[in-house]
Amino acid sequence: HFAGFVGAHWWNQQDAALCAPTGGKEPPAELCPDVLYRTGRTPHGQETYTPRLILMDLKGSLSSLKQEGGLYRDRQLDAAIAWQGKLTTHREELCPQTPGLQDLLSAEGVLSSDGTWRVKSVPTGKGPAPLTTATAPRPFIPTGGSIRVWSDFLRVHLHPRSICMIQKYNHDGEAGRLEAFGQGESILKEPRYLEDVEDRLHFYVEECDYLQGFQILCDLHDGFSGLGAKAAELLRDEYSGRGIISWGLLPGPCGRGEPLKNTYRVWNTALGLVHMSAHSCLVCPLSLGGSLGLRPEPPVTFPHLRYDATLPFHCSAILATALDALTAPYRLRSAPLPMAHLADMLNFSGKKVVTAAAAVPFPLAPGQSLPDALVQLGGAAAWTPLSACGSPSGTRCFAQSVVLRGVDRACHTSQLAPGTPLPSLLHACTAGEDVLAQYLQQQQPRVRSSSHLLQAPCKVAPPYPRLFSPGLSREGLLVDGPLSRPSAAVESIPVLGALCSSSALTRALGDLAGELSKLDVRRCASFLAAGVEQAELDEALQELRSLAQRYQSGGLGD
């Protein structure tokens, strides 16, 4: 499912940053990986470093990945219990290749004789630091087929307690699908799943020195919307006072050709936003689509990306890159902004739903100063919106958190010769952090802002798709002429990401409520049969309207 695609790309990017070479011109480790990773030890004494993660998915979503993972298995025991009886072989045709994916599957690595995936040395001859068997990524072996599930390209080992399979629903096929909010909500009402999730939660929570809170990544358009909402309620009840940030993922634009599917999609989205905002500190829909409602809008565009909006593999990679920047404030090694504090800054007056925007990559030329780049970028309208709420033009921002990654310290301030007239106030700042703060103040006066400037870029190593237009250097900088490289050479990029409490939500949520009020959900009897009553839909519709009204342009006290 789509949230799994986004999560897999995100973990791959974090893993690539962990495995990056140290020394030389590499920037210092500004992000603390221990916020989202944990150390462990296998029964054989090997040290491990795995995501602190509980992942719930459906039958058929694991591909070749084992539910218990591969780090902690006993190879001698596996050999001892090898099947000695008769075998029946079943032959299945390969899935047809997806156009444009064939050359995306050529991950730059080799499988060594001990089963460890080793990344090839880069052309300069400076390869990455050696990886131990226990911490090496999962092999990503090209098969020539299309990427169907997130586990096809996940390079990170998972802990045996991470994956919780939902056996009653299927990933593929027409029958047994998790397609309605009520179905997902009912999963965590069943004792076997509830107790299983609680046990996994306690395992991870009890080893934390300082528990900031929880992040929920879930699809908004299908039954996982209900599962995510119920998970947020569980976390709020059991860990009151901790931060809970929910990221609601939506795939690319949907067409008009499937009215029943679209009806399910908009109701699942509305119920998810309403229920998750009730139980979370902050909720952010993430999508490359142009609208939350039934009316199809073209997908968003990026000046330096060439992506296919119909491929989850592409869309999820872009959203994961934005997510890696948006979550940086509470992952900082020095002076982090805790999750709960970030949420409090953005969610005042009940505005718990926020929008996201990003510049992927942030347009920066080699040696260009940050003041010059920001003046050239222009206002916030130059950022690409990522929450399916339409263009930010003409809207008001009430509060924002902005992160800019991948700007070398030598370029943080103006490099003009003494006595040269200053092109802008940004060129008078003496620190990069002041430059970014001054830029935000100019673009959004009287707006509550938090900004962070990081040197480390976002890693886009394979199996990240090759989305970049020609004219980008290996570091994702804008170059022309003979220094220009093909897009396949891009290994890291500067990224700007922003979370905003915006009046755009008045229109987006209001339009969604208006469309839902015109739908006769009784024609979708299966949606009501899945566990949601008509009274609950009426109440959610009223709450959605109330939520929209909170973002009407006005003062901070609104």
Automatic annotation (TrEMBL):
Coiled coil stretches, renumbered: none
Name recorded for this polypeptide: Protein misato homolog 1
Gene3D superfamilies associated with the record: Tubulin/FtsZ, GTPase domain
Family to which the UniProt record says this protein belongs: Belongs to the misato family.
Species of origin: Crocuta crocuta
Major subcellular site: cytoplasm
GO cellular component: mitochondrion
Region described as Disordered: 117-137
Keyword Mitochondrion belongs to the record: yes
The gene coding this protein: Msto1
InterPro entries with a match to the protein in the record: DML1/Misato, DML1/Misato_tubulin, Misato_II_tubulin-like, Tubulin/FtsZ_GTPase_sf
Domain named DML1/Misato tubulin: residues: 144-332
